[in-house]
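so my prof wants the structure for this chain in the tokens format not the other one, which i didnt know existed until like an hour ago. anyway here's the sequence
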Amino acid sequence: MATRGAKTERREVNSSQEYEVKYLAEKLGVSSQAIGGAKRATGSNDRKVIEKYIKDKNK
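here's what i got, hopefully its the right format
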């Protein structure tokens, strides 16, 4: 069960872990606030959903 939990955790962005938000923001070339806004807009913590939302928004 621990392995499955670890995989699940890697797919999500935890807002209380500043380094996770900072990493994703740097990866996508946006601010940390944009990551928070994307999380609220999509209603999801899933990295792929957030990345897709930001990439689509920047088009």
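also thought this was worth mentioning. Residues 12 and 46 are 4 Å apart (CA to CA).
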